[in-house]
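Researcher: Here's the sequence for the chain we discussed earlier.
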Amino acid sequence: MTVTLTELAELRLRTFVRGTPDYTPTRGVRLAVKDGGCNGYEYAIKIADAPNPDDEITESGSLKVFVDPKSAPLLDGVMVDYIDSLLESGFKFTNPNATDTCGCGKSFQAADCGPAGTPCS
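Model: Thanks. This is the structure I predict for it:
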């Protein structure tokens, strides 16, 4: 499974992770997909103290990224960027598994795959 963070996204997430109280080296970011949003799935990012036993763990720079096995097929190949402009700021996902996305870019639809672990094509 491949998750790519741009340099700016990694910097922003690393700042959040290290800026939390009681920072430990096992702390990282959990990327996940959950049911919801206007297109069926929505992205979730949160700080995690440690990986779960069944998580896939990758590193981007010095940041640990945890992905649960149900989200992994939907996030395989995703690129996360951070945009900061006059009109919008936040994390932007470019997902090769998405067959449709909503206007806000925070939710997506994927054909022939789901959080139950069905393979994405």
